[in-house]
Amino acid sequence: MQVHESELRKIERVSQMLEILFSLAWVASVALPIVYIWLAATTPNSSGPSFFRVERRYQLQVDEDDLRAGRLTVRDKVAAGIGGTAVMGALALALWYAIRLMRQFKTHQVFTTASVELAKRAANAYLACLVVFAAVNWSAGIMAGGFRLGSGMVTQLVSLGLCWMFVWILQIGTTLYAENELTV
């Protein structure tokens, strides 16, 4: 039993650190769309063709310099704002569930149905984030007159696979833990 206590303390420490990191990322995912909307509303608009077509941008990404220089049309700003807000919203939801899961782990509630449920919700929200991200970038590709699949998407799909692997391991562990409790 002492081995498990040592492992639980490790899980508690790592969960505390991850909770802080996920919380900071959550704040950023909520704040970034607000900052973008403010910048988009306070910077000049382009009257020329779409920024994404001119710059051959295949992802719906803009930065502060593009906004301040007036390179984006109103349509570009709206598309980037809606797309960015949708992606950040899905990410914020995934992070919220991850934060709650880390709080469960901090209190040594690792192999519980509540932890499994939170892990599933986080993985599903992350999947939604990736789907929205792909749809947003697909729309940027259409506006740019082409489409490219970035290597970042492959990395994100691997991350999603690892998330689901973690969920399944947590499910199996929860089942084994429950069975062990019944035999003692």
Class by alpha and beta content = mainly alpha
- In whole angstroms, how far apart are the ends? 13 Å
Number of beta strands = 0
Nearest-integer average pLDDT: 87
User: Helical percent range?
Assistant: over 70%
Principal-axis shape: elongated
Can you describe this structure?
The chain contains 6 helices and no strands. It has 184 residues and is mainly α. It has one domain (2-183). α5 (113-144) packs antiparallel against α6 (151-183). The mean pLDDT is 87.
Task: Write the topology of this structure.
Blueprint: H1 2-42, H2 51-54, H3 64-68, H4 74-106, H5 113-144, H6 151-183
Helix pairs in contact: 1-4, 4-5, 5-6
Concise description?
It is built from 6 helices and no strands. It has 184 residues and is mostly helical. It has one domain.
Name a few traits of the molecule.
184 residues; mainly alpha; 6 helices; 80% helix; 0% strand; elongated
